[in-house]
Inverse folding.
């Protein structure tokens, strides 16, 4: 039988870090301008797909970049930063190509229906919103918000990956990488879905009134990730 | 946006308790049957995938019930969450449980699912009355799917073999997405006012058969499991399930008409 108390006592810091990573991911989803199916038809502001797909796309890119840097560097800050930057690049590319499609393909101006003036550029929004829609495209504020979301999500994912990789274990390096990756992915998905239920599937960014609900999702993610962190660290530490 | 159902509980068809029994008992029987019989002959590893199909049908039915209330976000989210919870729980269960691995994994998944279900209603305020039960079911189904497919790929659920053949090689990612798709896709593809339980569940069987074939292909590189029985039986189940599904679609459709091929350029002039 494995020494559960010993493993927990030895790796208590990493359990805390995994939990923190999960909370960061949960918070990050609130920044990402996700419009769901209506946005895919240019009838709502945001990127035209679901929260989970976006968070997973950006977050997993963050995990890959964090994993690549971890192979060549021991510095935790460098690993975590590269995870954040990887996710930022991924979400930025998604948003800029999406904007091209909305502007040149669909033929709609980026406009927010939640605010009359863009909080960053101070541009008028309401007169550009087509009738019967809830905005369309990605106005500057949503874009900036999305990049912040990508950064936080990537940070969260790479903190989880780094913590699991640093847990004291008897596993070989390649097995540890595989196990830590799949645990990080599992925890990532759980923490991407919880906030998407909190915001009801769509949000424009940090200027959206729904953004104020984030403490609820972060609290739920705290409890959920804490459980997953115990389970994950005991698994890796016990081998 | 209420991608999902009409805002009420899905009704009709087989009672959920029977499906819970099918998924739990079938899933565990598949995992243990595949594990023990594979010692006699690797050809029996396919039984694990049959267990996974039971778990997939159960998971699909649970998704159908909870997603009918309208989750606010798309149906796929709940399937991905099922496998997210399932993968954490199943790796833990197999690593610490030894011979009791699948049971430990199943119980762990159920606890994680229950807590997330309670959080969804109490903290996030989703207000779906069956959320706690459904999350528990979905997490359990996810864990049993992963274990069943792992058994089909390796012929055992002993963690060392699963770690070497399934996790370290990255095939766990295939299980994650294929299993997740199999659980989320049935309701996602069939939802709407004319949704019928038997048609949705038949899609689940069909998707489960595809994951069985995929598991069989992976088993070609494993020592403990034979690939041919999994692939062959998977294809047969897929064919039967798909034919039945087409029949059910024809039954539920108002009318099925062939539109012919697209007209050629000359015909358009």
């Amino acid at each position: 039988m494995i020494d559960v108390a010993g493993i927990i006592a030895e790796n208590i810091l990493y359990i805390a870090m995994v939990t923190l990573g999960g909370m960061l991911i949960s918070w990050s989803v609130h920044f990402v301008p996700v419009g769901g199916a209506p946005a895919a038809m240019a009838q709502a502001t945001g990127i035209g797909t679901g929260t989970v797909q976006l968070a997973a796309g950006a977050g997993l890119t963050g995990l890959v970049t964090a994993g690549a840097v971890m192979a060549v560097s021991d510095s935790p800050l460098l690993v975590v930063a590269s995870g954040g930057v990887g996710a930022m690049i991924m979400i930025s590319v998604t948003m800029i190509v999406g904007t091209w499609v909305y502007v040149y393909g669909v033929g709609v101006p980026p406009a927010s229906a939640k605010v009359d003036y863009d909080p960053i550029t101070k541009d008028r929004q309401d007169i550009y919103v087509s009738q019967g829609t809830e905005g369309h495209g990605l106005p500057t504020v949503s874009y900036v918000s999305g990049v912040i979301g990508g950064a936080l999500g990537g940070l969260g994912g790479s903190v989880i990956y780094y913590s699991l990789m640093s847990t004291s274990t008897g596993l070989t390096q390649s097995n540890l990488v595989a196990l830590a990756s799949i645990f990080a992915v599992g925890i990532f998905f759980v923490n991407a879905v919880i906030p998407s239920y909190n915001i009801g599937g769509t949000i424009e960014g940090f200027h959206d009134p729904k953004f104020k609900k984030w403490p609820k999702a972060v609290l739920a993610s705290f409890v959920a990730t804490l459980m997953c962190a115990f389970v994950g660290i005991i698994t890796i530490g016990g081998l | 946006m209420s991608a999902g159902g009409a805002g009420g509980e899905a009704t009709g068809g087989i009672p959920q308790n029977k499906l819970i029994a099918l998924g739990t008992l079938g899933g565990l029987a598949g995992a243990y049957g595949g594990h023990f019989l594979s010692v006699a002959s690797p050809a029996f590893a396919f039984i694990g995938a049959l267990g996974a199909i039971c778990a997939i049908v159960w998971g699909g039915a649970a998704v159908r019930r909870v997603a009918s209330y309208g989750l606010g976000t798309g149906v796929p989210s709940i399937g991905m969450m099922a496998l997210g919870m399932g993968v954490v729980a199943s790796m833990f269960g197999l690593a610490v449980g030894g011979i009791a691995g699948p049971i430990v994994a199943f119980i762990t998944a159920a606890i994680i699912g229950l807590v997330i279900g309670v959080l969804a209603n109490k903290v996030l305020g989703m207000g779906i009355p069956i959320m706690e039960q459904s999350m528990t079911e979905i997490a359990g189904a996810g864990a049993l799917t992963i274990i069943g497919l792992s058994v089909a790929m390796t012929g055992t659920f002993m963690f060392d073999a699963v770690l070497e053949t399934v996790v370290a090689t990255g095939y766990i990612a295939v299980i994650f997405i294929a299993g997740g798709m199999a659980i989320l896709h049935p309701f996602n593809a069939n939802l709407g006012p004319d949704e019928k339980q038997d048609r949705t569940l038949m899609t689940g069987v069909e998707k489960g058969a595809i994951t069985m074939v995929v598991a069989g292909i992976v088993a070609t590189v494993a020592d403990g499991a034979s690939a041919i029985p999994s692939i062959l039986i998977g294809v047969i189940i897929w064919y039967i399930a798909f034919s039945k599904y087409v029949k059910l679609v024809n039954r539920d459709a108002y009318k099925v008409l062939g539109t012919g091929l697209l007209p050629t350029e000359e015909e358009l002039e």
